[in-house]
């Protein structure tokens, strides 16, 4: 019986000898393995990036919470306490929780002898991230400004143009109520919508200067991924009830946009995996076809080995090992290509999967390719092992 060491040595040498014939098969399996590895390794990173940039999809991971103004009694204040906000932030799957004032203060302003009625809203530092808003110029106030109750503001693009025209709005002051607020930045983004004409001030500043008329009665909650939206939405009512009254609580979720997003991603993933599966299938068929051709070309060799005492299981083991080595070499090449694809993709996404994640998927890809070689090479190996020694020797 042939030893394992000799079996591997002979198989590797045979694969190397037939490298030109096997080049197409190796490339097919390598490309399929590289694609599969890249999709699996980068799947979570792509999902994070896509969830961060959902402006074009209607902000499907954004959940809004407030109280029904028409139903709740006017004798009882309705706002989200600090304990409730912290509990919401602690929920699994929650990325950002932002508090804001639901009530908008319409403030008359006079600039260059022109009167403007400007909607003013108090927001905290998490408002920008929760609503996917970015500064067009300047910067958006952060926790330090909110904590200091600073007299600063951020204005929308349309308001900046109306108030200052082509002049740079940064550093200018505008009247809000009886005080002057310094413009720190101009905010934009697809999700800003009608708020392009708004002025935003720190939530603490708005509450201090407006009393009970302005409270933290609006919550913007951004989930980490679209998979987290449903479990988070289901947990919101119980979380609020555990820390305060949840009477007349209204929870708004963009279920239609979410469903549309999941459906789009599902079809894209299906197309990618079908393409990769087709590539691997062609590679497996190539192994089968190549091994069948090898059996026919080496029929006399098989006959001579049997005449010299080789058993059928030895012949079968040799051809199976050749198919395995062929697919394994393709898988290793695919892992190398997959590594470079992941590095290239990570450069553009600005996010890299951990080495452990990549190595786990690389190991899975190699095991899968090895099994592919064994499965597709089994029949040719079985056929070779059943050849009659005399008939094989006489084969021309």
UniProtKB/TrEMBL annotation:
Sequence ranges assigned to domain MacB-like periplasmic core in this UniProt record: 23-236
Localization in the cell: Cell membrane
Keywords: Cell membrane, Membrane, Transmembrane, Transmembrane helix
Coiled-coil portions: none
Protein name as catalogued: ABC transporter permease
Transmembrane found in the keyword field: yes
Family per similarity comment: Belongs to the ABC-4 integral membrane protein family.
InterPro entries: ABC3_permease_C, MacB_PCD, Macrolide_Exporter_MacB
Membrane topology: Multi-pass membrane protein
Pfam families: FtsX (PF02687), MacB_PCD (PF12704)
Species annotation: Pseudodesulfovibrio methanolicus
TM region positions: 23-43, 264-288, 319-341, 361-379
């Amino acid at each position: 019986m042939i030893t394992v060491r000799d079996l591997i040595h002979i198989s590797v040498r045979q694969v190397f000898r037939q490298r030109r014939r096997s080049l197409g098969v190796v490339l097919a399996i390598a490309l399929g393995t590289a694609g599969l590895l890249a999709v699996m390794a980068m799947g979570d990173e792509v999902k994070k990036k896509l969830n961060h940039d959902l402006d074009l999809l209607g902000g499907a991971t954004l959940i809004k919470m407030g109280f029904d103004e028409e139903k709740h009694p006017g004798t009882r204040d309705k706002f989200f306490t600090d304990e409730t906000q912290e509990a919401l932030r602690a929920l699994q799957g929650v990325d950002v929780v932002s508090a804001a004032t639901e009530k908008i203060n319409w403030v008359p302003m006079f600039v260059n002898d022109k009167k403007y009625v400007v909607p003013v809203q108090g927001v905290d530092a998490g408002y920008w991230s929760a609503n996917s808003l970015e500064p067009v110029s300047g910067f958006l106030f952060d926790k330090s400004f909110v904590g200091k109750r600073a007299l600063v503001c951020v204005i929308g693009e349309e308001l900046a143009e109306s108030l200052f025209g082509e002049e740079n709005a940064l550093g200018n002051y505008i009247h809000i109520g009886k005080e002057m607020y310094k413009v720190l930045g101009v905010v934009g983004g697809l999700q800003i919508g009608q708020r392009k004409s708004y002025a935003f001030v720190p939530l603490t500043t708005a509450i201090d200067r407006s009393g009970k008329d302005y409270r933290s009665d609006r919550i913007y909650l951004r989930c980490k991924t679209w998979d987290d939206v449903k479990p988070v939405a289901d947990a919101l009512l119980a979380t609020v009830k555990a820390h305060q009254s949840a009477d007349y609580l209204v929870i708004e979720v963009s279920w239609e946009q979410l469903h549309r997003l999941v459906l789009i991603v599902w079809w894209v993933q299906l197309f990618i995996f079908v393409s990769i599966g087709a590539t691997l299938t062609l590679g497996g068929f190539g192994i089968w076809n190549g091994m069948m051709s090898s059996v026919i070309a080496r029929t006399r060799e098989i006959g001579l080995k049997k005449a010299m005492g080789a058993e059928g299981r030895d012949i079968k083991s040799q051809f199976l090992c050749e198919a395995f080595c062929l697919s394994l070499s393709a898988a290793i090449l695919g892992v190398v290509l997959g590594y470079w694809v992941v590095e290239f993709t990570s450069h553009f996404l600005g996010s890299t999967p951990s080495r452990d994640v990549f190595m786990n998927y690389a190991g899975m890809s190699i095991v899968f390719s090895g099994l592919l070689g064994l499965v597709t090479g089994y029949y040719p190996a079985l056929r070779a092992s059943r050849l009659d020694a005399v008939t094989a020797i006489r084969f021309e």
